[in-house]
Structures are given as structure tokens and as C-alpha cells.
Write a structure and sequence with these properties.
six-stranded mixed beta sheet, Alpha-Beta Plaits, Gyrase A, domain 2, six-stranded antiparallel beta barrel, Elongation Factor Tu (Ef-tu), domain 3
Length: 379
């Protein structure tokens, strides 16, 4: 299959790794941040096992970067998020929330601090470049906001550390979880971080020269193939096992951090008047009316993830919706993330879910479903 066989027109951008992913077996794509993202390298269950048993390389260039520089960069970034960044060091990464004036979630990106006054916001699927530029107009802060020539790959799985050592040397093992380094691979400029959207040990390699995407992909695959590396795509199975959010599915502009259990990412006592502070203070005081939960769903294994929100009922009354559901071959269960009315969130409670194939019994369980203390990723 040729790369030109995929396409919706020039308004959807191709990544620097697009042709390489097609050569290595990508059979289908979806659109994320106005770009193609590979979603199909064959059997999604085999992709899952490749991830958890060895390693996969994923094109995640769709995680577009918003670069914020200038004398007031740190001050400006703090206005965008309720997470306290006062102790964030150069070389550190943090998972943050970006909220609007109503306390609604606009994005849940990774923030990277590359220098004292240089940040990247590595995005989930929404136009935060436009939001940040708009906020900056009337901020009276000296910042420059742009989208740089940066395209990340994810190398994820238990063998990723060995592959990284083969690529960069043994001292890459000293890179701590949620920290970064600026490196190069045979002259290819990179930022490398111990992060990833997989709930497994992993790294993200941020290419800083889009003209060398094909070369970078082939170098990594050539080094990793003897160690079991496979081309792959982000695993819905593994990310739901890990309780990781997918923006637009598990959260959106109408979802606030407290509903998601993200109280630790909201610091209402900091001096900065970040966007949404007044609303979040009110929500915290009044209490939430719904909350995200984990579910196991009975019945036959789900053949594919849900493509619509499934209604959840209790005693015939609708109380919420399933946002992400999948069959976990490791847990041998249908598992799901859902959001329901707060009075129906007790662990062990039984609910009814109307799936694409009919009604099924469900039970509220702890999330994440696997490795709840994140021992794999933080090892």
C-alpha cells in the first residue's frame, strides 16, 4: 500500500514519519490535532502484547507542541493551569490540566521545561495554540507563542530501556521518570523524555528537524528490531487498563478536574490568578454532582472499543455514561471508564449498561485496573 492511498485532502497534515509508518505496515489512520495518526497495524490485541511484552514504536507527531518563550514565560504558563508550577525545574516534565474560566478542561497535556524561559506544551487533541495566543493578547506579559518544528515518537514497553541504551548509551538509564534531556542521534536533534501514553516503561523522542523523520524512524527500528521492537500504535487496551484519559472521550470542556479525581492538580492557594480559579474554588466548595469511575462489564468480550457513549442506568433511571470501553485480554474482562452521578459511585455497586449489542450488567471497581501504583512506568 502506498502513502498516497490515505488522504482527506491537504487540510490534514502528514507527520515526518508518515511514509515510514506505511512502509512498516500501517493500514489505517484517524485524525487528531488536524493530523493523521496511525491507528491500525493489524490485530490490536497483538499490538497490546507487543507493547507489554517487548516494545513498540509509535508515531505520535499529533501531540503538537505549543512553545512559550520570553521573559514572562513561566508567569504566563502558570496562568494557563491550576497545577502549582513554582517548583518545576529546568529539565522537568509535568502532567497538567488547562482549564477555561468555568473550570472546564480544555486539554490535559505534558508540560516540558527546556530552559528557564522556554516551555513546550505537548498537547492532547484540542487547539491550545490558538487559546494560548488569545490569552496572551491581553495578558500584558512578554511572551512569544508558536508551534515549533517538533514531532514526537513514542518508544514504549519493557524493552524500551535496552533499545534506548543501544541508541544513546548506558547513561540514558539515569534519565528519571518525567524528566528530559536534549540529545542528538547521529546529528539528528532530539529532546528525549521519560514519558508516554502507554502506562508502560517508555520514552518520547521529540524530533526537532522534520526533514529527518524517515531517517530517525529507520535508525530506531534497525536498532530495536533484534530486541523485539515492533511498529505499533497507541494501545486503547493498555491506556484504559492504566486509567489514562482520552480527551473528547473521557473528558471535555464541560468536565472539571474534581470530577476526574484530579484534586492534586488543582492548587487554589497559589497567588497566581490562573484561568478558572474562581470557578474551581466555587466547585470545590459546593461539591461535584458526578464523578469518573472504573467499571467491569459482563457479557461476551467486546470485539472493539465503543464508538458512542453508552448509557448507564440504575433501577431504570439513567445516571451516567460509559466513555471508553474495551476488552482486556490480560485481565480477561471488559473494562471501562465512565462518569456517573455522585450518589452512585460506591465501589462494588452494580449498574446496567446499554452496549452496542444490548444491556449488560456492570460493577464499579477501583481504577486504574492494572498496576494502580504506577510501578511499571516509574521504575
Amino acid at each position: 500500500m502506498q502513502s498516497d492511498d490515505f488522504g482527506f485532502g491537504t487540510q490534514i497534515r502528514k507527520s515526518p514519519f508518515f511514509d515510514a509508518t506505511v512502509r512498516w505496515g500501517a493500514q489505517g489512520f484517524s485524525v487528531y490535532n488536524h493530523m493523521y495518526i496511525p491507528r491500525d497495524f493489524g490485530d490490536p490485541e497483538q499490538n497490546f502484547w507487543n507493547l507489554v511484552n517487548s516494545a513498540i514504536l509509535c508515531d505520535v507527531s499529533v501531540e503538537r507542541q505549543v512553545e512559550i518563550t520570553g521573559p514572562d514565560a513561566a508567569t504566563f504558563v502558570q496562568t494557563l493551569t491550576p497545577r502549582n508550577l513554582s517548583k518545576m525545574e529546568v529539565g522537568q516534565c509535568k502532567y497538567i490540566l488547562i482549564t477555561n474560566a468555568d473550570g472546564g478542561l480544555l486539554n490535559d497535556p505534558i508540560l516540558l521545561r527546556l530552559a528557564e524561559n522556554r516551555f513546550w506544551i505537548s498537547l492532547a487533541d484540542s487547539d491550545i495554540l490558538l487559546w494560548a495566543q488569545g490569552v496572551a493578547v491581553y495578558s500584558n506579559l512578554d511572551v512569544t507563542i508558536k508551534e515549533p518544528d517538533v514531532s514526537p515518537l513514542q518508544l514504549q514497553g519493557p524493552k524500551s530501556g535496552e533499545i534506548m541504551a543501544a541508541l544513546f548509551g548506558e547513561n540514558i538509564a539515569e534519565l528519571k521518570y518525567y524528566w528530559l534531556r536534549e540529545l542528538d542521534l547521529d546529528g539528528i536533534p532530539l529532546v528525549v523524555s521519560r514519558t508516554g501514553w502507554s502506562s508502560e516503561l517508555g520514552y518520547e523522542l521529540y524530533l526537532q528537524d522534520g526533514s529527518r523523520g524517515d531517517e530517525l524512524w529507520e535508525k530506531i527500528m534497525a536498532t530495536g528490531k533484534p530486541l523485539g521492537l515492533k511498529p505499533g500504535h497507541t494501545s486503547t487496551i493498555r491506556r484504559i487498563e492504566g486509567g489514562m484519559l482520552s480527551y473528547h472521550a473521557d473528558a471535555d470542556i464541560s468536565t472539571n478536574p474534581f470530577e476526574l479525581g484530579f484534586d492534586r492538580l488543582v492548587s487554589l492557594d497559589i497567588d497566581t490568578n490562573f484561568i478558572g480559579k474562581t470557578a474551581l474554588r466555587r466547585i470545590q466548595s459546593e461539591g461535584i454532582t458526578r464523578k469518573q469511575i472504573g467499571l467491569t462489564i459482563g457479557g461476551d468480550p467486546l470485539l472493539k472499543p465503543n464508538t458512542s457513549f453508552w448509557p448507564i442506568t440504575k433501577d431504570g433511571i439513567e445516571i451516567g455514561k460509559v466513555t471508553s470501553a474495551v476488552y482486556s485480554p490480560r485481565l480477561k474482562q471488559n473494562i471501562a471508564l465512565a462518569i456517573v452521578a455522585i450518589e452512585h459511585t460506591d465501589i462494588g455497586s452494580e449498574l446496567d449498561v446499554t452496549t452496542s449489542s444490548g444491556r449488560a450488567k456492570a460493577k464499579i471497581v477501583e481504577r486504574p485496573f492494572y498496576d494502580p501504583k504506577k510501578q511499571i512506568t516509574a521504575a
